[in-house]
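Please check both lines for our workbook:

___
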Amino acid sequence: MRQAAIAALITLDMLNPAEAAQQGHHGNSVSAFLGVTGEGRRQRAGTIGLEYERRLDEHWVIAPAIEHAFGELDFSVATLSIGYRFDSWAVFAAPGIEWAHHDYGDRSVTESEFLFRTCITYEFEAGELIVAPHAIVDSVADEKVVVFGVTLGVGF
């Protein structure tokens, strides 16, 4: 897993965001995520996360992210999104992994499942500062997990 993450970061570093920069956008951004996750009708959790976005050109972006839901729900998510930006709007699709650690008295188990994420966001920029509300739906096994939140980040 660590080798795959290192390879992904090296690949991202080699991609040239020059065209995006020529269009007046930052080539990269790093953002903190704060939101609420809902699973089913009654289970809710606070969610925090970290997101990196690399513009490949004027419209296409790649965005790895990691999040943790805590409270009634307790699990983490890692995704690698491909996004399409048009004006201030963006849509994303991503494969990912959801995992949770459980303690059962004398033993502990980490369970993981594949997920598929879809997301729509609207980005507000003020200089290098970026604020973006997110609406996210994760499909995990036979369940839908809904996440609403906002990122606060900086472009560079």
User: Anything to note?
Assistant: The first strand starts at residue 28 and ends at 39. DSSP finds two helices and nine strands in the chain.
